[in-house]
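Hello again,

I reread your note about wanting to compare the complex against the isolated chains. To keep things tidy I'm splitting this into two emails, and this first one only covers the full assembly. Below are the input lines as submitted, including protein chains and any nucleic acid or small-molecule components. They are followed by the predicted structure of everything together. The single-chain runs will come separately.
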Amino acid sequence: MSVRKKNKNPAETMVKEEREASKGRLIPVHVMGKRYEVPEGLTLMKAMEYAGYKFIRGCGCRGGTCGACGTVYRRPGDYRLQVALACQKTIEPDMHIAQIPFFPANRALYEFADLTSAPEEVFRLYPELFRCVACNACTKACPQGIEVMDAVSALKQGNIAEAAQLGFECIQCGLCTSRCFGELVQYHMFQLARRICGARIIPRAEHVAEMIKVITEGRYEDILGKLKHMSEEELIKLYQKREGEPVTAGEDWRPKDKTYL
Amino acid sequence: MRLAYYPGCTLKTKARNLGEPAIAALDVLGFELEEIRKWNCCGAVYSLADDDLIHQVAPVRNLIRVKEQGKNEVVTLCSFCLNTLKRANLLMKEDAEKRNTLNMFMDEEVDYGGEVKVLHLLEVLRDEIGWEALGQKIKLPLRNLKLAPYYGCTLLRPRETAIDSVENPTILHKFLEALGATPVDFPESTRCCGSYQIISNPDNNSGYAWDILSSALSHGAEALVLTCPLCDYNLGQGQKELVKKHDGFRGMPLFYFTQLLALALELDPQVCHFELNQGSPESLLWEKNLLP
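Full-complex prediction:
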């Protein structure tokens, strides 16, 4: 995960603005058991970088959607472990933090083309599903606020579509699995449920096939050919000239030029 | 009348032939089975270990769901779910120390103290409708059908959570009489089917199944009536082997009690999902002119 490297850390310059904005107010945080003083207002990730850690793993989008920076923390005086994405959560005084960027969970191998939408597919690939004791630790550990235990229950009940729906916002951070009493792999199971649901349960979008037909018949060949041979300048001009959708446009808004619709 | 309903996982997958006819039949009888929201697996087996409280969390959480959805009763159909929910409920009612520990562990839930009453569908039929009134609503009496009521274990044991007399139960007998069928008493009707022993010891289990099936047959039954998906598995799955092993045994149809109720109320037979039954129980019903 992170490699500690004091001084000349690019992160030092990255957090310079925040440091100035906080007018030098430093607060104590404990990163993996070691105390640091960092400017208040930083995210957990920036606080760790300020303290000298350089992320070569466990850091992705910095926008709360990639799930790479799952982190556990505890506030002073509270026995409960809390979870967050390091790029999203702001530091609090005296909190203890440790990142869990990857969890070595069991992941079933399957040939997707051979899978049906039968509930037994999930039972067979992830038999540990039935080790769930409904302790709810997974739900408490989800930084996305997903009802993880309910989605697990849906899988047990053979309702793959419900599990896919409930687990739709899963970012695969693995914190649920790290806390699971029954050693279930919730996030991989939900991914399987979403795949089965998308390919086998949700009705096919027939209009997509029609559109593909139109495209393969060459409807866009001319314009794409023209675009390919335009200079950068011409492309910029064309882009700036395009008719944009007004912010206030209603659902029935259509552009004047419908040539390529 | 609306009743909170706890289906259990098996009724949503392998045993839809137990759950779906019940929902349809109850509708005709003026009861709506309203599935509780956000339920989880009951745990399937009640943990007998004194210090194994984690396995009480699942059933208790379901009872909390019932309470939090403003209901004070919950109906279930599966014998195992009934047993697990009822015994966990009793624990929450009677053991203050364990109640406190479990409530503290589930700190995200409202506190629970055994307030919800867990009912089996047979109890609803007996106590809310009554056998005589049920009999009057029957449109297609199951005349000439000799049925052996098989209770198994978990409806009747332990005594504290039994839905009827432990030694001499009659609830399933009376239910069958109300449908116009002839209940056939047989000594194995409350014997264990082998339960989960089949997983670790599949051979030993067929001994139980044979004892039960042959006893019912020798007392003149034409089919066995069940309430539990695990009994169905143990008594049905092993029948192919038993047919090979025992000369003259040609298999015995198994019915869930809810399938017979739907049939006697003349509901569309499709709701019974006979295709999920072991063997082909329809032949017997055709023979008796009970299926078109």
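For quick reference: The CA atoms of residues 14 and 46 of chain A lie 8 Å apart.

B.
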